[in-house]
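Protein: Heptahelical transmembrane protein 1
Species: Prunus persica
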Amino acid sequence: MSPMEGGALAKKRKPTTTMDHQTSSSSASVDNNYFNVSHNHVTDNNKNKKKKKKKRNKAKPKRYSLMSYWELPEYMKDNEFILNYYRANWPLPQALFSVFRWHNETLNVWTHLIGFVLFLGLTMVNLLRVPQVADLLGFFARSTPISAVTNVSRNFISGIMTTNLIELKQMTSQEMEIAAAGHEMGGVAYWPFYVFLGGSMFCLFSSSICHLFSCHSHPLNLLLLRIDYAGITMMIITSFFPPIYYIFQCDPRWQFIYLGGITIMGVFTIITLLSPKLSSGKFRTFRALLFASMGLFGIVPAVHASIVNWGNPRRNATLVYEAAMAFFYLTGTGFYITRIPERWRPGWFDIAGHSHQIFHVLVVLGALAHYAAILVMLDWRSTFGCDNNNTT
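Structure follows.
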């Protein structure tokens, strides 16, 4: 091949090589663009998935788990014999809705919440003067003034659970007005009765709130414990008002002495229990003794009342109910202090059957027994005045 031919061949090959290079570059650019578009598409899909996941997490509330005694913060370690199913540092909404979950406070909440609703119902039916509903529990049935006076306390003790009450559906509106007027003409004040009902409702409701929300934080825990102790004290104080007021209605001096005494003791107890230190588990026995001392103060006016009303046949019925109340309260206090039965079998009674739940049930039963005793006193005092206390 001559030099001229070689040069011509080289010139012919040169454009071809340039074209190929441009085509190759263009192809690589297209590939890169395709890769970038694909990569961006995948990135966008991942971002969308993360956004959707975040939305789902926001829509679905976090379910807080229960923990054991050893995982609790120090301020919540109260009963070392209940080992599991604790709530700790829960937000308020989760604490509120935990009323429908099983944990070691569930029955503590519901026992007193049901008691609160029960006493609220009794308050309403007494305000509306519907004796048939007020006597729903069968403790005592109170006859209206338009019917013959029925000694229902004797019927209860003998086991006869029927009364001579006029059926509500047979009473005309005029008869109902006469019945209500009869109570007013009796000259009996009903406010001590409603003071007791109000104190009981405050105690039961504050107890339920305390057990439900005390898992939120340490400051709220301390506040609710103080309100709970104040509620117990209020229930004890207000329990004294109806019996002392009605029994000593004809001797106001003793009303003032006994009601003033228990009120002073109650105020002292509340002030004492406002100390954060006394709210701890170490002072459980001390708190129980304070409450028990207030209850035992009632022995003095009880003995006095028995002597004053020795010839009154209603005395025995009243004492039976009040003795039942004392039994329920003192037995409940015993469970509260000793922590039986969980002390015997730690971990067995975490959900149901531990001492505080038994204590709650006995408190409600004691309040109901006292309610029955007050109905006996109220019926007696609305029927007979100071001149014939001992008349049947």
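Remarks: The CA atoms of residues 233 and 267 lie 8 Å apart.
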